[in-house]
UniProtKB/TrEMBL annotation:
Stored InterPro entries: PDDEXK-like_dom_sf (IPR011604), PDDEXK_AddAB-type (IPR038726), Restrct_endonuc-II-like (IPR011335)
Gene Ontology molecular functions: exonuclease activity
Protein name: RecB family exonuclease
Domain PD-(D/E)XK endonuclease-like: 62-310
């Protein structure tokens, strides 16, 4: 699967995008873990608020497109993010993606006729302030930029992405049914799927369109299938929740000014479901055995966990969950 680093960063959790739902709720985390023997599941590390948060090990209990993407990219990366919950630094690319998403979402608060590019760009400073309030760590991105030059360039890039959106869609003609919609569905197998859909449009005829914004560039055609995986995942969840197959899946690439659409059919969603069940089996096996293999790719250059990765001479932290030996043969 080829996609841009920027979207990998935002969509797979690099820089801890706030749009990503918590991987598990403590109640759903299954057996108590070594690191969380009481099952309290307080990831903030209850106790002295002056202490930095202590990561709490988690047993995977649900799957989002981002985490499924992590496992497909590198099982060890999945472990570091979902089970060890190792902290990651925010990145400029991921944070810009979060900022642009917030601006596009908030623009729909305005009456249709006022949803203009100047108005959208005017939302950027306020949304940036809000982001710094809710996630103070993103302010550190520009701590070494006393004259604000780099920040100004970064905000300028965000403006250009927002501006490009108006060449691809006309928000004055859209009335989204939902924005930043959290969805969750349980399959018959018990696997819970969850995620956040950027925008859901519903036509007067009842047809549903699922829209996702990407701040990176569109993939080459031979990699489009990988890019659509996330959208088919959402379509499967919507189908399971509402018994309606979305009419259209739409990826809006602000980085390159492209729109990729796909009209799914039931067979597509059944295929994705089978793939996710197989993926979940592999995740459960790795969870039980503690056998999480690194899978190096060019994306390793963007991985925050190289210091813990054997591919880069590092050692993973002790595995925090009980293990059973892998079956032989
Ligand atoms: S550095 Fe590469 S191989 Fe190692 S954990 Fe990160 S993504 Fe996986």
């Amino acid at each position: 699967m080829e996609t841009s680093i920027e979207d990998v960063a935002r969509d797979t959790g690099g820089g801890a995008p706030p749009a990503e739902p918590p991987v598990e709720s403590p109640a759903a985390a299954g057996p108590a873990t070594v690191a969380d023997p009481a099952g309290a599941g307080d990831p903030a590390g209850a106790g002295d608020p002056a202490e930095p948060p202590v990561p709490v090990a988690q047993v995977p209990a649900s799957l989002s497109p981002s985490r499924a993407g992590d496992f497909m990219q590198c099982p060890l990366l999945y472990r570091f993010r979902v089970i060890d919950r190792l902290p990651e630094k925010p990145s400029e690319a991921a944070t810009r993606g979060t900022l642009v998403h917030a601006v596009l979402e908030r623009l729909f608060d305005a009456p249709a006729a006022e949803r203009t590019a100047p108005r959208a760009k005017a939302l950027i400073p306020g949304q940036w302030d809000r982001l710094k309030e809710t996630r103070p760590e993103v302010g550190e991105l520009f701590a070494d930029d006393p004259d604000g030059e780099r920040l100004a360039g970064w905000l300028g890039d965000a403006e250009r992405l927002v501006e490009r959106w108006f060449t691809l869609e006309d928000p004055s003609r859209l009335e989204p049914a939902e924005r930043e919609l959290f969805v969750e569905a349980e399959l018959e197998s018990g696997l819970r799927l969850r995620g956040i859909i950027d925008r859901v449009d519903v036509a007067p005829t009842g047809e549903v369109r699922i829209v996702d914004y990407k701040t990176g560039k569109a993939p080459r055609p031979e990699y489009a299938e990988g890019a659509l995986f996330q959208m088919k995942f959402y379509a499967l969840v919507v189908w399971r929740l509402k018994q309606v197959v979305p009419r259209r899946l739409q990826l809006v690439y602000l980085g390159s000014g492209d729109v990729l659409t796909y009209d799914p059919v039931v067979a597509d969603l059944e295929r994705v479901e089978r793939k996710l069940l197989a993926l979940w089996d592999a995740i459960r096996l790795a969870t039980e055995t503690g056998d999480w293999r690194p899978r190096p790719t060019k994306l390793c250059g963007w991985c925050d966990h190289r210091a813990h990765c054997p591919e880069f001479g590092g050692t993973p932290p002790p595995y925090p969950l009980p293990v059973r030996p892998a079956a032989s043969g």
